[in-house]
Amino acid sequence: MNLFDLSGKTAVILGGNSTLGGAMAVALGAHGAKVAVVGRNQEKAEAVRKEVEAEGGEARCFAADTTSKADLEKLLSEVLDWSGSVDILMNCPGKNSPTPFFDITEEEWDSIMDVNLKGVVFACQVFGKQMVDQGKGGSIINISSVSSGPPLSKVFTYSASKAAINNVTQFLAREFAPAKVRVNAIIPGFFPAEQNRKILSEERIQSIMNHTPMNRFGEPSELQGAAVYLASDRASSFVTGTTLRVDGGFGAMTI
């Protein structure tokens, strides 16, 4: 009984060239999925592809602007030409900023919302419709954040975008359930990803540790189990509309 065998599946990892997206891409590939590593930085994407192949998996790199629906539609066509189907979608792109609330510009707001929210919605439209039309189910995994509720200080726009991701996840879980397409989100705690390093002062790190019962940052590899679990239609066949925390207890902490 192999609950986590992804053989015969094709996984599209948007932002698969990032620290966390790359780690999850490797895990899906190691469990048998063909992995489409998608990102604008092809050098980083190639590094992830090599890691997937080192684990015995199969992967290919694709370039796309995830905020452009036209780019996503082109990407879908390219992936179908390569593998013939899409069974798993992971939405990993993320953009953050510590700009104080009164200083947030329209341009910055739009930029963060485009990457963190609009791109996810468009990806779910494009790839979700493909899964529905294929008629064999599928799994969409969105990457949320502990800032999605209650929001973190200093990252207003990011927190708002991730709160919206939780809502989108639940809405689409209901929408796609009749077609056996499951939609869930992972809520990572604090991981050493590129986008949050710039706002981690010593004072903020101490504040995070005081609010994290395990008293440490997460390692990217610690997201792999959650990704494989939610991707597998054997292990999580009755799981949809949920947010799975991988946060060292951050969400369970009060005072």
From TrEMBL:
Pfam families: adh_short_C2
Domain of life: Bacteria
Keywords: Oxidoreductase
Residue runs in coiled coils: none
SUPFAM superfamilies: NAD(P)-binding Rossmann-fold domains (SSF51735)
Family: Belongs to the short-chain dehydrogenases/reductases (SDR) family.
PANTHER family, per database record: 3-OXOACYL-[ACYL-CARRIER-PROTEIN] REDUCTASE FABG, SHORT-CHAIN DEHYDROGENASES/REDUCTASES FAMILY MEMBER
Name of the protein in question: SDR family oxidoreductase
Species, as recorded: Marinicrinis lubricantis
